[in-house]
């Protein structure tokens, strides 16, 4: 993990889980600026702002910064609620573990979390083993072919580091 991201995550910790996830989103979903016009991501999914996808993304529309912020807050809250539904031990995890799982859910979706070995491991109390599962989620379909994406390798590595080592006593 680079030092800039490490510093931003450490500062965000005071704001709790969603503040940590917001730092991850801004780091992995775009450059320093939000893309205000939708674009196709590597998996050919229309995306805008810091990783917002779905029916609210209208190709060709230019979003305002305020619209992006509102969409990001909404989608982070959706991802957090989905993670809480799927991970029954969520409230026993530290904020960095929670953030790693919420970021995963924001990026990969509740369905992938629900069907994962990671979920089963967390829910059976095997937290470290569950954290190690994150690194397995580095592939996406690009033009119908399942391939490893460098961006997902980087993202999952950071999520796994947060999950395994940050916030431990």
From TrEMBL:
Task: Keyword check for Hydrolase, yes or no.
Answer: yes
Q: Which InterPro entries match?
A: Bacteriophage_GH24, Endolysin_T4_type, Glyco_hydro_24, Lysozyme-like_dom_sf, Lysozyme_dom_sf, SAR_endolysin-like
Q: Which domain of life is it from?
A: Bacteria
What are the protein's UniProt keywords?
Answer: Antimicrobial, Bacteriolytic enzyme, Glycosidase, Hydrolase
Could you tell me which CDD domains the record lists for this protein? endolysin_R21-like
Q: What is its EC number?
A: 3.2.1.17
Reaction catalysed by this enzyme: Hydrolysis of (1->4)-beta-linkages between N-acetylmuramic acid and N-acetyl-D-glucosamine residues in a peptidoglycan and between N-acetyl-D-glucosamine residues in chitodextrins
Record-linked Pfam families: Phage_lysozyme
UniProt enzyme class: hydrolase
Which family does the similarity line name?
Belongs to the glycosyl hydrolase 24 family.
Please identify the protein, giving its name as recorded.
Lysozyme
């Amino acid at each position: 993990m680079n030092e800039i991201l490490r510093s931003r995550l450490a500062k965000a910790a005071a704001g709790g889980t969603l503040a940590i996830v917001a730092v991850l989103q801004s780091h992995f979903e775009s450059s320093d600026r939000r893309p205000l016009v939708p674009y196709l991501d590597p998996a050919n999914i229309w995306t805008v702002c810091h990783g917002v996808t779905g029916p609210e993304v209208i190709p060709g529309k230019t979003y305002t910064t305020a619209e992006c912020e509102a969409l990001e807050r909404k989608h982070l809250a959706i991802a957090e609620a989905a993670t809480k539904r799927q991970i029954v031990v969520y409230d026993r995890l530290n904020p960095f573990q929670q953030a790693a799982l919420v970021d995963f859910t924001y990026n990969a979706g509740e369905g992938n979390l629900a069907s994962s070995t990671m979920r089963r491991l967390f829910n059976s109390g095997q937290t470290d083993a569950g954290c190690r599962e994150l690194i397995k989620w580095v592939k996406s379909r690009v033009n119908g072919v399942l391939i490893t994406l460098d961006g997902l390798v980087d993202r999952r590595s950071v999520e796994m580091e947060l999950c395994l080592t940050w916030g431990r006593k």
